[in-house]
């Protein structure tokens, strides 16, 4: 029996799947693919965090169900992090909750607060869960610009004036995945004032707060006076401590939204494995040298990538934060679109990147490059790209022929 399920029908084909399938076939054929696609940290979790996990796992009492809100010690550690990093005092009982990564937290909150037909405001391009978490929940999305400037604020005015029903919430993500843009407190202040005035919740994704390269740590929206009246902020251990597979994140801020998330999570999970939570608390409370080392590693990789691509003839803006570069497609390939260009780059240069169209329609014309290989491999990738660009005429002719045949068919 073939059935088309309503929520599945609302999801477009996963455009990254084509590149991933090509990558898998190439590797199965023995080809050396430099994978700069998925933002999956390649370095190990710091040893002291792993040691704490092992220690806690040896205690049989930790093998039982945990709690969906997160163990008290971890919520207290997270509140302490916000106090020292942002100067924001949080109540661990009512203003903090542990999530299975920031992605799961946002998706579950979407289920909690979204009714069919509700309108959400989401920047484009954006990380896919930002719009599709709400679409899966039955809501609709109106896109606003991603650049945190006057045009963004003007777009909010238009959205409220011309959207029926009034938007329920606004999603923010700075430092941004995929664009690496960073917002400042002045911008946050204006957004908070606007959303408080119009009764719109703000959902801020701060997963890349500790990956910054220009000496200015990205701020939290909760630093704005009155923000907690409307704002909830998600963060993650994945990138800060090289803990992506551990699936530990947090939400902090507005008590009503924390309560809604806690209630729906109580039906869906018993929380992360307790030893993982114990280790996460050790990460937050322990020495932070590892965070600075991780940040420096990504900065070094960024510099190698941007310099190498420039030498290859591909001018890519240097990202001020995150583990990504948001690269405009070279003009000679612009007509192909981001998906075909990504496939071409994989086939000809053996370098995998993420097509910008996968981050929304306004991502077209770009590819996202992740800093998830060491500097030597990134140099190798830049050399391969240089050879590929030098042979642009030879490389584009087969792709254009295939595209023409596809269009005729």
Notes on the structure:
With 409 residues, this protein is α/β, with parallel strands linked by helices. It folds into two domains: 6-44 and 290-401, Aspartate Aminotransferase, domain 1; 47-285, Aspartate Aminotransferase, domain 2 (3-Layer(aba) Sandwich). It contains 14 helices and twelve strands. The longest helix has 24 residues, at 289-312. The protein starts with 5 loop residues before the first helix and ends with a helix. 47% of the residues are buried.
For the structure shown, list the relevant keywords:
Aspartate Aminotransferase, domain 2, 409 residues, 45% helix, alpha/beta, 7-stranded mixed β-sheet, Aspartate Aminotransferase, domain 1
Strand content: 5-15%
Query: What CATH architecture of the largest domain would you give?
Result: 3-Layer(aba) Sandwich
Query: What structural class do you assign from the helix and strand content?
Result: alpha/beta
Count, helices? 14
Give the rounded overall mean pLDDT: 92
Overall shape: it is globular
* Radius of gyration, taken over Cα atoms and rounded to an integer in Å: 22 Å
Name of the CATH superfamily of the largest domain: Type I PLP-dependent aspartate aminotransferase-like (Major domain)
Top CATH class of the largest domain: Alpha Beta
The helix/strand order is HHEHHEHEHEHEHEEEHHHEHEEEHH
DSSP helix fraction: 40-55%
**In terms of per-residue confidence, which ranges show pLDDT below 50 for 5 or more consecutive residues?**
none
Numbering strands along the chain, what is their spatial order in the largest sheet? Answer: 2-8-7-6-5-3-4
Largest sheet: 7 strands, mixed
Q: Fill in the CATH topology of the largest domain.
A: Aspartate Aminotransferase, domain 2
Number of E strands:
12
Task: State the end-to-end CA separation.
Answer: 30 Å
Q: What count of domains describes the coordinates? A: 2
